[in-house]
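User: Please predict the structure of the protein below. I'd like the answer in structure-token form so I can feed it into my own downstream comparison script.

Assistant: Understood. Taking the following sequence of 622 residues as input:
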Amino acid sequence: MTSKHTHNKFEEITEKSSVLEGQALQKELSQSLAATLKNETGLAMRSMGPAPSRPVIRGLGSDRVLISEDGNRTTDLSSTSPDHAVTVDPFTIERLEVIRGPKVLLQSPTTIGGVINAVRHEIPQELRETVSGTLGAYGETANSGYLTAATLEVPLNPFMIRGEISRRKTGDISTPIGTLGNSESENLNYSVGGSYIWDYGFVGASMRDFNLDYGIPGGFVGAHPNGVSIEMQKQVRNVKSRINLNMERLENIEIHLTNSYYRHKELESNNSVGADFRIRNNYGFVNLNHLALGFLEKGTVGFWMDSRDFDIGGNVFTPSSKSLHLAGYVYESFTLNRVNLEFAARYNFDNIRPDAEDPDSRIGNIRERTFHTYSLSFSALYQLTETFSFGGNLSKSSRVPTIEELYSEGPHLAAYSYEVGNPDLDAESGVGSELFMYYKSASVYVLGTAFLNYLSSYIIPRNTGETNWRLILPVYQTYGVDALFFGSEFDLEWYLSPKWTFQTSASYTNGSFASSGKPLPWIPPLKGKVGISYSNAPITLNLNTEWAANQYRVDEFEDPTDGYAILNASALYALTLGKQVHHFSLSADNIFDTEYRNHLSRVKSIMPEAGRNFRFTYKMFF
């Protein structure tokens, strides 16, 4: 999944359209994972201030978009509420992958969505001959933010040791009309990993500590006047192995085990704890990868397990719960003449058990719930010529409700909402379809996609328009509804000459209640970018416009947003001195200090997005 070598047209398309690495990654690096990816085709950014931001794919958020590191899902609560941050800092990663189609089922049952995988090889898998590493720094003006980071890999044959540390600090963000108060953040992130590597594979372990303190802005309905402060900590311990079988048909076995502890505290202005979330998680998988088996060229058969203990304290009335999740899956790829095919299937068993059952709760019968679900995905690509291919995907998706969606019953401090769950929710089920065409020649690259997804029991927390006047909080009720999504995406790169390239992209998603045709909440508008770049080693220059249309198609009690266009520019310079490579990047965002608002921002009613911002990135590779 993290290999850089392409073997068929599917992998070629993925590498071209869904991978961010090298200088392209350095140019887009920002404060968070979501901000780094927000201009990629089909992606948008949900936010509640700069720190608690999360990627959205084709209008779908929550855990329909799984975030993983080196193929291992992250432990945090960013998928459950807009005030919770993602526990991944993007600066020290090597590449970002947006995974869709059948390969999603190796990690998640939600085929209508996707996986965002951050690759950093925290546990080394290859033995290097010399010491290597990186040193880096980052700064930006809109929030007076800075970061310093370092990675180091040391070979001690047959062992390989890797270490990493980064520290980031930002102030309140400046906008064209003022400062967004209580939007600062401070992060310390470090890890140590090592492997024993031999001819038949590797076995290794790692530990990571991630600490993030950040603010949630106030000043709108339901919000504390001065906002809320968050203290977050995550500790992760990993053990990973790959055993090469060196057999004619069986390639290797991958084993991964993770133990993690996560804590998230929400503090009021008097420093009292309004909410306290703690997760103890044990997670693992075993994958058997095979080579040619009959007409099958390569594939994976695997088993996955996740045991979670979720404790909730403070003034949150959602019951503490324990959950067990088991899954078995298979992924296969093969070729028939000019047709590349991929298929995957996954079965999930999910058991969620609240510590205290309450059949007479105000929200219904709070009780143990068990779900049996399955997911399927099939993709076909026909290579008409060496330059032109077209294909499609059919999928059956599933998703079980989260603990919060089932059992929430009261105020959530930092989300500024009174949350009402639904213990009778069914598992979400969906049928998705997609058609695409791909053209790549020496001078032009084009990828066009159209999709149509229908989801039954689509689970959403929806603003009811009511207010809990005792706490002055808007009431959000969780519903399971039938929903219809359709849209399209377009990518074009035109190589005007060996040095000049024209680029443009656009993404559109329409989300509706299937029964009424009325709009679903929190659907991003038509958006895209257009730009031109000049590359003449060692310099690369880029000028682009990031734009979005109006979003007036909104749910009841949801604010519309106007369209916008902002101008950005960047310059990258690569310098080689002996065995060291130095990358310098300077970017200017929103050059004309335009006032604009992200439709998926929960604070858009009080402040727009950042104003004029200069970002500087430096990385040295040795």
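That's the full token string. The longest strand covers residues 444-468.
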